[in-house]
Design a protein that fits this description.
Blueprint: H1 2-17, H2 21-30, E1 35-44, E2 52-54, H3 56-60, H4 64-69, E3 73-75, E4 83-86, E5 91-94, H5 100-103, E6 110-118, E7 123-132, E8 145-151, E9 159-161, E10 175-180, E11 186-192, E12 198-204, E13 215-224, E14 231-241, E15 249-250, E16 254-260, E17 268-271, E18 274-275, E19 285-289, H6 296-299, E20 300-302, E21 308-311, E22 322-331, E23 336-346, E24 354-360, E25 363-365, E26 373-380, E27 390-394, E28 400-404, E29 409-414, E30 425-434, E31 441-451, E32 459-460, E33 464-470, E34 478-481, E35 484-485, E36 496-499, E37 503-504, E38 507-508, E39 513-515, E40 521-524, E41 535-543, E42 551-561, E43 569-572, E44 583-585, E45 594-597, E46 599-601, E47 611-618, E48 624-626, E49 632-635, E50 646-655, E51 662-671, H7 675-682, H8 688-733, E52 759-764, E53 774-779, E54 784-787, E55 795-798, E56 813-814
Parallel strand pairs: 1-7, 8-14, 16-23, 25-31, 33-42, 44-51
Antiparallel strand pairs: 2-5, 3-6, 4-5, 6-7, 9-12, 10-13, 11-12, 13-14, 15-18, 17-21, 19-22, 20-21, 22-23, 24-26, 26-29, 27-30, 28-29, 30-31, 32-35, 34-40, 36-41, 37-38, 39-40, 41-42, 43-46, 45-49, 47-50, 48-49, 50-51, 52-53, 54-55, 55-56
The chain binds 2-acetamido-2-deoxy-beta-D-glucopyranose (NAG) (2 copies).
Amino acid sequence: MALEGFLQPKCIKWRLCCGLRWQVLIFLLYFSHIVSGQIRYSIPEEMKKGSLIGKVAQDLGLDLKRLRAGRARIVTGESIQYTELKTDKGILVVSERIDREQLCGDVTPCSFNFEMILENPMELHRVTVEVLDVNDHAPYFPIQDIQFEISESANVGARFLLESAVDPDVGLNGLQNYILTPNYNFILKQHANPDGSKYAEMVLQKSLDREEHPRLSVKLLAVDGGTPQRSGTVNIEITVLDVNDNAPVFNQSLYRATVLEDAPKGTYITTVNASDADSGSNGQISYYLSKLKGNTVDIFNIDMATGTISVSGQIDYEKDNKYEIRVEAKDQGGLTDSSKVVIEVLDVNDNAPVINVMSFSSLVSEDAPPGTTIAIINVKDADSERNGQMTCSINTNLPFKIQSSLSSYYNLISDIALDRETTPEYNITITATDSGSPPLSSTRTLHLRISDVNDNAPLFHQGSYSTYVTENNSPGMSIFTVSARDSDWNQNARISYLLEDTQISGTPVSTYISINSETGVLHAVRSFDYEQIKQLTVVVKAQDGGSPPLSSNVTVKIMIQDQNDNSPQVLYPVQTSSSLVAEMVPRSADVGYLVTKVVAVDVDSGQNAWLSYKLQKATDRALFEVGLQNGEIRTVRQVTDKDVVKQRLTVVVEDNGQPSRSATVNVNVAVADSFPEVLSEFTDFTHDKDYNDNLTFYLVLALAVVSFLFITCLVVIISVKIYRWRQSRVLYHSNLPVIPYYPPRYADTLGTGTLQHVYNYEVCRTTDSRKSDCKFVRPCSQNVLIMDPSSTGTMRRMQSENNILDETDSPIEVT
Ligand SMILES: *[C@@H]1O[C@H](CO)[C@@H](O)[C@H](O)[C@H]1NC(C)=O
Ligand SMILES: *[C@@H]1O[C@H](CO)[C@@H](O)[C@H](O)[C@H]1NC(C)=O
């Protein structure tokens, strides 16, 4: 029974330690009758091998012999033999390192048991060895480090449970205390579990600021109570989690930038920059342009990520020379900041000046005084400063100048007096140039016409004219053409010709001469008689159609040329119907006796009045002669008694005109010494009538004969002509080769087919216009017919030096 009571605890122990329970039971049953004792030792753990545990032999009262004889040995159910029995010394020593913590863990007190068996007799001694704890373990943390992620917004007082440390030692050698390395933010609070183990909490006593200390590192120290004290540490790594507690901040409150107005899209302007102390998405900033002005957004663009502002639209200095944009920086958490960007637009000379004609009179009278305003011009340039400063000019060599009246207003005024007759129109080109670099300019051309003023009187081509007209002209004949020119325009240059109202020998000039007011052709109103009037002087006035009209006059001298239109008139001897008047010649008259003198006159002048006398018929031709020049009838020989008393002479008086005109005069001469002799003779003179009648008869007969002969001849000639013509037609149809005949002048036509020599006609005027004008042909090498296009319809004949018409001293104008 005692054994059972003994076995009971052992069984409990084994149950705890290993699975060999049933073997020990068998063994114990086998030795159930043996003697036993109990012994207890207490040793610290971790003793060296061979260290003495206890003098077991001594303590059990056994001697060494007994030990040896009894083959004392240690029996233990364990696999590890911690102890060894030294039988020779009777002591128990450590044979294996004894680790209390390994052996018992947390169980205290810690002991192990074994039996010492002796044989002969069988003895069984129970030995209990209590292992005392030694502070051989430092507290340690089972993890490498403690990681915390704590938001910076964590409230003060927030608690964070810390990992507990482990110390296998027990009692005082076990974990006693936690210590946190000093820091600003946390303090340590320790608590005890119901089982007495301790744990610690970290309490936030000051708010975290990630921006200041994004990471904190503190050490937690676990200390035990052993001697020497041991400790273990663990790092507590605290990552402060960001809270979007910082708004972005621009690094400048105002950004200034400039940009050229012609900057193309994408041109860099400036970069704004904001910083956000927060991290991660809370610090990620996006940039925006505030929509201050509606169009600014279209013009500028900001890169959301980089804050680079660039041009995205059309900048026009003339619309906006300065832009003020608000930029906004926003983090992901929605916090914002804003700043201002002032962008000054720099002017570029991109606008040419614009010329506006405010008023312009395109028609200016030529009598406008110098300084007359012709146009008012407004010049604008949308650019500014130098790019908008303009100069205005006109093309040179014009009688105009440009004056600035107000700023950007210019007056175009005439500089000198204008004259339509010299320049009827002007193209005035106005050029406006700005001062930019390069300068831009624009032009505008004004077309100015000068209106006419009647400031020019008609002008005759010559100071005076003289012309000749032959008398006996047909009434209405054109005599001469005057022409004047007026350099004015249209109505002011429309010339009408008038005759000045003068008197010619008491009668108005209009009864002699008329003038075509349009053409200036002078016409004879009547037939002129040289014998009545030898010269006409008319004054022709040319008057233009202006208002008031201007005029000038010219004197036209018309010389009337004589024609042989008057036959000589015999003044003496007076012709009477009866021929009873006779000149007496005494029979004693000597040779050269002046019988009488025929006196004749011719009212014509010059050659036409130059008379010559000839004896045409005489009773006795040998007796008388007539002085050719003076008309004196003289005796040629001595008068004899045989000469008849009654002598009749017919004297022809002829003038020298072309053709000449003549008159005949009969002179009766009585050759007698006494008057009665004469009387008796002269009664016969009445028979002269028969003589005259006979003469008339003979004349008529002769005329008839001549006429007959003439007609006969004409008939013969025509017959011959017709016969020849027929002959030539037969020849032509017979295809016989015909050699064409070219007159020598026409031989030159080969090749060109046109006449190279121009034939023209020339009028030879004789002094007697009643006689048909003779015409003849002269080659053009001597006379040239010139067509002068300037004087329309007028052919002016240029006469060569050897012109036969030397008496016609003025050129003949043919209209
Ligand atoms: C002015 O210009 C017009 C049209 O360009 C042209 O017909 C005319 O001949 C010019 N006049 C002068 C005087 O240059
Ligand atoms: C002709 O004109 C001149 C001036 O040109 C003037 O003196 C003269 O009186 C005028 N003669 C006639 C007849 O009108």
